[in-house]
Amino acid sequence: MKFMVLMIPGDRKSYEAGAMPEPALIDKMMQFNEDLVKAGILLAADGLHPSAKAARVSFDGPKPTVTDGPFTEARELIGGYWMWQVKSKEEAVAWAKRCPGAPGDTLEVRQVFDSAEFGPEVEAREAELKKVMEKNAQS
Amino acid sequence: MTILQAHKAIDAVFRIESARLIAGLTRMVRDVGVAEQLAQDALVAALEQWPEAGIPDNPGAWLMATAKHRALDELRRRKLLERKHEELGHELEVRRELAEPDVEAAIDDDVGDDLLRLVLIACHPVLSTEARVALTLRLLGGLTTEEIARAFLVPEPTVAQRIVRAKRTLAEEQVPFEVPRGAELEARLASVLEVIYLIFNEGYAATAGDDWMRPGLCEDALRLGRILAELAPNEPEAHGLVALMELQASRAAARTSPNGDPIVLFEQNRARWDRLLIQRRRPTTPTGRASSPSTTRSRRSRRRRWWS
Question: What ipTM does this complex have?
Fold first, then answer.
């Protein structure tokens, strides 16, 4: 199953100012990303520009409204994301805990809908699988 | 956190660490079966202690230290049974390892080598193909016997027996835990690639059961392929295989209708193709040998298998 892991920077001020993290932290983060690659779970990772370069398009009237950044009102901002392919939410969480986050940072671990993986019909198929297994056991 | 949640969390940590654990332990005790048992013992210790004490900051190091101590006990026991010079040598090695401080970065290369040795031994030609598949999923993929049995729709005892026999064969044949060089390495890697692609194909075009696909197996194979490509970064074949599997997997969601019937390529809803996997498909081989057989197969397969 796939997970999108969102990075919500704790130090919003310096993130919004476009400041680079300490070199030591960047090294640690690169090492973490390398570990993800070696484990075969990293599909994609990107960092996002500060919200000054962003825009919001909202649909609360007859026509969409566009608000340009920065979003000073927003409670939390996403600074970047990873896409991981793992076996379970627990595994995603175990990896997220290894991330060298700065104080105040939050990682949000969200499962990606994937119709190829677990559709609503899966439970019905489980029974089918069992039947086949029993049949194979007899043969 | 309930006990069940704690166990799930520990299980997840163990899955992340188990291959590295087994690989490192095999180098010490020279027996995959014993190494796996030691790793399992460390897991049991974790399940007993972590729910109370919490998961340690470096769970991998904790598990390895616990398993190493048990390895030492195991070697002592063996030594009592039969005093072999060789095994005394092993004990010295383990002692040295225990004395060394666990510097992650310093041992990282060794870990990579051990993992490569483990992949190669799990896919060793003395084993039957079925045994290689089961052992690879078990040792490298971290799947339980039950999970492997479910994936291949065979009874659990059959898989368990395959794994036990495979481990015994490796011990009896005294298959060395090593990375061979030159032509032999090529041949051994080819065997690994074959096993991974076989796992992928069983997921992509299942031969057993009513389902056309078993996506879980595709994911296991993709993961194994990516791990191998990192372990052998100069092997264009490994990168080619990952590229091929990702290309095929990108269509997984579009290949079957909700009731499981196959949909041919030109009728597939392309919006359901996985763009991420398609983009990742670009084979980037460090040697620039774009014409390796796997990458050629990837190109050819696009023509030959246009319907799937």
Answer: 0.78
- Residue A132: which of B153, B213, B272 has the nearest Cβ? B153
Alpha-carbon torsion B298, B301, B303, B307, what sign?
negative
Residues B209, A44: C-beta atoms closer than 8 Å = no
The pTM is what? 0.81
Write the CATH number for A11: 3.30.70.1060
Taking contacts as CB-CB distances below 8 angstroms, the residues of chain B near A111 are none
Q: pLDDT digit of tens for each residue in chain B (308 aa)?
A: 788 888 999 999 999 999 999 999 999 888 999 999 999 999 999 999 999 988 898 999 999 999 999 988 888 887 777 665 566 566 666 666 655 544 444 445 567 789 999 999 999 999 999 999 999 999 999 899 999 998 888 999 999 999 999 999 999 999 999 999 888 999 999 999 999 999 999 888 777 776 767 788 999 999 999 999 999 998 899 999 999 999 999 888 888 887 778 888 888 888 888 888 888 755 444 443 433 444 444 443 333 322 22
User: Does residue B180 form part of some domain?
Assistant: no
Tokens 């983060």 belong to: A29
Q: Which two tokens stand for residue A19?
A: 């400041």
In a domain, B49, yes or no: yes
Which domain does A74 fall in, by range?
A: 2-138
Q: Does B21 fall in a domain?
A: yes
**Domain count within chain B:** 1
Is A107 within 8 Å of chain B by CB? no
CB neighbours of residue B3 within 10 Å = 9
The C-alpha angle B68, A29, B229, rounded to 5 degrees, equals: 65
The DSSP bridge pattern shows strands A2-8 and A106-111 to be: antiparallel
Q: Kindly list the residues from chain B whose CB atom is less than 8 angstroms away from the CB atom of residue A43.
A: 276-277, 280
Going B113 to B37 to B172 to B125, the CA torsion angle's sign is negative
Specify the number of domains making up chain A: 1
